[in-house]
Amino acid sequence: MQPLVEVRDLRYQYDDGTVALDGVDFQLFPGETVAVLGANGSGKTTFVLHLNGLIMGKGSVTVCGMPVEPATLTHVRQKVGLVFQDSDNQLFMPTVLEDVAFGPLNLGLARDQAETRARDALAAVGMAHASSKAPYHLSAGEKKRVAIAGILAMNPEILVLDEPTTFLDPPGQNALVALLDELPQAKILVTHDVDCARALASRAVFFQKGKIAGEGPVQEVVARFNWDRISLQRPAGSRL
Ligand SMILES: Nc1ncnc2c1ncn2[C@@H]1O[C@H](COP(=O)(O)OP(=O)(O)O)[C@@H](O)[C@H]1O
Ligand SMILES: [Mg+2]
């Protein structure tokens, strides 16, 4: 089977000299959800920014058979929908509907077609009722749903989500996991939330210092890198 995303020996250095990616190899196959785990600063966000060409390093990134390069960016960005960690970076129009219609309009769709896509996408994330609201009035969970709708309106084949549950309360996190579980696209899910990774991903990769230090079933990777929540070991009766 052809991978949807194929990354080979990807290297990236920021202008200040920080080596953020130091030889990453990665594949995503149709139907898969892969969790991307690893410490803060290990290169996860730098990695996902390469998947739709927001930054370009050395090595190769191929999406649906297309090399990611300046000439293919328009096509690549239709295939890969990237949901940023902070929804405020994604939402900037006066109303939710306009925000979600922005992508399809940018693709060249007529306004009524773009709005139809936007309404369908908002319905898919359970936010149809908020179409005429201002995005900045929404809760963090609602903003995340609208940001996802903006991506879905582009009909992507691959969803890439950078720490989607970070700013959400527990019910919001559960609702988001349920939503993501229903979306049929292949997914790359950057997360510190091991429960979320376990619920959604069939496999995990673990970033360390700009490299993938290990991969496998989520639970195996979590155990190998000791990546679960801390459980305090107190002697019995010591709790006040
Ligand atoms: N714009 C930037 N300029 C310089 N260094 C950066 C920039 N963005 C990230 N970095 C550095 O690159 C490394 C990887 O960061 P990042 O990809 O954001 O990691 P993660 O998403 O895993 O927390 C870190 O050392 C971080 O400090
Ligand atoms: Mg990050």
The assigned structural class equals alpha/beta
CATH homologous superfamily annotation of the domain at 5-93 and 157-224: P-loop containing nucleotide triphosphate hydrolases
Q: Please mark out the parts with pLDDT under 50 across 5 or more consecutive residues, or reply none.
A: none
- Shape-level CATH architecture of the domain at 5-93 and 157-224: 3-Layer(aba) Sandwich
Radius of gyration: 19 Å
> Helicity range of the residues?
25-40%
User: What summary fits the major beta sheet?
Assistant: 6 strands, mixed
Counted by DSSP, the helix tally is 8
The small molecules bound here are: adenosine-5'-diphosphate, magnesium ion
Could you describe the 3D structure shown?
The chain contains eight helices and ten strands. It has helices at 44-51, 73-79, 96-106, 111-124, 140-152, 170-182, 194-200, 218-224; strands at residues 5-13, 19-28, 33-38, 58-63, 66-67, 80-83, 158-162, 186-190, 203-208, 211-216. It is globular. The chain has a domain at 5-93 and 157-224: P-loop containing nucleotide triphosphate hydrolases (Rossmann fold). The chain has a six-stranded mixed beta sheet with strand order 6-7-8-3-9-10, sandwiched between helices. Strands 2-1-4-5 form a four-stranded antiparallel beta sheet, covered by helices on one side. It has 240 residues and is an alpha/beta fold. Helix 3 crosses helix 4 (111-124), helix 3 runs parallel beside helix 5 (140-152) and helix 4 (111-124) crosses helix 5. Bound molecules: adenosine-5'-diphosphate and magnesium ion. Adenosine-5'-diphosphate is lined by residues 14, 16, 18, 20, 38, 40-46, 207.
